[in-house]
Amino acid sequence: MSRYDVIVVGGGPSGLAAAAAASGNGLRVALVDASSQIGGQYWRRPSDQAAAQQGTTLESLRRRLIDVDHYPEHQVWLLEPGGEHSLHLAPVHESVRTAAPPVLRARSLILCPGAYDRQLPIPGWDLPGVMAAGGVQALVKAHGVLPGRRAVVAGTWPFLLPVARQLAEAGAEVVAVCDANSLAGWLRTPLGAMAVPAKMGEAVSYAAAFARHRIPFRTRTIVASIEGGDKVDAVRLRKVDRAGTETLDGIDLVALGWGFTPSLELILAAGAATRVDLDESLVAVVDSWQRTDVAGVYVAGEATGVGGALLALAEGELAGLAAARDQGRSVDRGRAGRLQRQVRRGRAFATAMHRAHPLPPDWQDWLEPDTTVCRCEEVTVQDIRDACQSLGAVDARTAKLLARPGMGWCQGRVCGFASAKLAQGKGKRLAVNDLAPMSKRSIAMPVSLERLATDEAH
Amino acid sequence: MTTIVTLTFDGQPLTASPGQSVGAALTDAGVRSWRTTRRGGRPRGLFCGIGVCFDCLITVDDVADQRACLVPVRDGMVVRSDSDE
C-alpha cells in the first residue's frame, strides 16, 4: 500500500514525535528514514539492547509508532507537490534488504530532514583523518570505533563538548578543544539561556568531565591549518585576534564543526517559502502550527532553524497534531497550546545559542588561494575569487556555474554555505537568493539510471 | 555480541562487528582512505560519516560508488578501493 494520510520524512526526534502524534490522532502514517534504526543523528546507539537501557523518550516514542508503516534505509530522491503529494524513494545503498514502495502518496507531508555539521574550509581540511564532528560521534557511539588516538576538536558551538567527551571516554587523547568564541558569549543573552535552565546543568557536567579527562579547552582559538602528506600529522592553532601560531604534532584526528546546516532540498522541492536564520542557515518559514505556505506541507525540527532536540520534539508533535486537525480530526487543543509555548521558549534559547556562537568574522582571511572549498569538484578559494573578479560572477549562483563549487556528488551540501559566503565577499549577510541555489537539488540524491527507468512505470 | 563478520578489502581479509558500516570497519583496521580524486589525485576516506558528503565512495560486491559510511558489513562481502578507475 503506498497511499497514506500523512508521510513523515526523517526518523530523528521531530519526525518520531510527528509520526506518533499523527498516528495517535487517527491518521494513517508512513515514516521514511535513511537509517536502519529510528532515532536520527541525535539518538544513536550500537544496538537495540543499548536502546532498551536508555529507556527514555525514544522508547516511549517507539511504543507509539506501532500503527505507523516504517520504511527504513530509504531516501526521497524526488518530491512532487500537488493536491496529493508524491515521494519517490530509493534505497540508501544497493545492499538494502528492506523493501519500500517506489512511490508514496499522501495529502499531508511532515518534513523533518534534520541537519548536519556546517563546515568552513581550512587549509588541509581535505586530508584523511579530518572529519566532521558528527561523523566522529557516529563512529564512536554507533559503531564502537575510535577514528584516532590523538585528537583535536575545533570550530564553534556547544556540540563540540559531547564529541570531545565521547572521544576521551572511548580512550583517545583529546589534545585540544578549540572554540572560536569565548564562553562569555552566554552572558550577553542571559534571558535566552535562562529560558531552558536545564542546559546550565549540562554545562556544569561537561566542565567536570573535561577536568576528569584533563581535556584542555581553548576559547577564541581556531585551527589555522592542518598539515600532513596523505593523512593528518599536525595542526596549527592560533588565537582569533592575534598573529602567530602554535603547532601540535602527532595528531591523527581532527573533528570540525561550525554549528549545523539544515537539509533544505525537500522543502525547496515542495516550493515552500524559506528565510535566512540568525546563523545564516537557510530554513523553512512555518506558522504557529508548523505549516509552510504550501497546503498540506509541514516542517519540524532543525529545518525550521537549528535549535536542538527538545525544540525538535515539541515542533514534531505539534506538526503531527496540526496535520490531524487540518484533516478534520479533533485534537487536544490544550496540548497544542502547551507545545506552542514550548516552541516559543525553545526558539528564545536557540536565538541565545546562535548569538553566543557566531562564525569568526575574519574566517575568509585564514584561507590560502589553493585551499580546497568544494571537496567533490576540487574547487579552490582562488577559483571562486577568479569567477567573481575576472569573470564577473556577482552572486553564488553565477559563481557556481562558472567555477563549479557544489556541482559534484554532494551537490553543495558541504561547501554550499562557504561558497556562497566567498562569492559574496566579507562583511555582508547572506540572503535567500544566495543560499537557495546552493541548497536546491531537483534530484535530492544521486540515483542510478536503472532506478529512473523503473520509476517511470509508476 | 561475539559474532564476527569477515570481509575482504582489496583482497585482504578484514574482521568487523555486525552492524558496523564498511567505513567503520576500515577505520578500525587503520585504513584512512580508499579513493583518490579525479583532478588532484588526493586521498579520500570518511569525512561527514553520515551519508551527506559522498567523500567515502567505495565499490562493494562489484557495485561502484557506494557510501562506505552507510553500507553495513556482511559476511563474505568483497570491498574494493577505487584507485584504478
Portion of residues in beta strands of chain B equals 25-35%
Mean of residue pLDDT values of chain B: 92
Rg of chain B, please? 12 Å
**Rg of chain A (C-alpha, Å):** 22 Å
Q: How helical, in percent, are the residues of chain B?
A: under 10%
Keywords (chain A): Oxidoreductase
Pfam families (chain A): Pyr_redox_2
Domain FAD/NAD(P)-binding (chain A): 4-315
Protein name (chain A): NAD(P)/FAD-dependent oxidoreductase
What do you see in this structure?
The complex is a heterodimer of chains A (458) and B (85). Chain A contains 15 helices and 21 strands. Chain A is an alpha/beta fold and 458 residues long. In chain A, helix 4 (133-143) crosses helix 5 (160-169), helix 9 packs antiparallel against helix 10 and helix 13 packs antiparallel against helix 14. With 85 residues, chain B is mainly beta. Chain B contains 1 helix and 7 strands, in the order ββαβββββ. In chain B, strands 2-1-7-5-6 form a 5-stranded mixed sheet, covered by helices on one side. A two-stranded antiparallel sheet of chain B has the order 3-4. The longest helix of chain B has 7 residues, at 22-28. The A-B interface holds A 34, 36, 41, 46-47, 92-95, 116-117, 126-132, 134-136, 138-139, 143-145, 147, 230-231, 375-376, 378, 408-410, 413-414, 446 and B 1, 17, 19-21, 23-25, 27-28, 32-33, 37-40, 42-55, 57, 60-61, 63, 65-67, 69-72, 74. Chain A: Residues 4-315 form the FAD/NAD(P)-binding domain. Chain A: This is NAD(P)/FAD-dependent oxidoreductase. Chain A: InterPro entries: BFD-like_2Fe2S-bd_dom_sf, FAD/NAD-bd_sf, FAD/NAD-binding_dom, Metab_Enz_Cyan_OpOx_G3PDH, Opine_Oxase_asu/HCN_bsu.
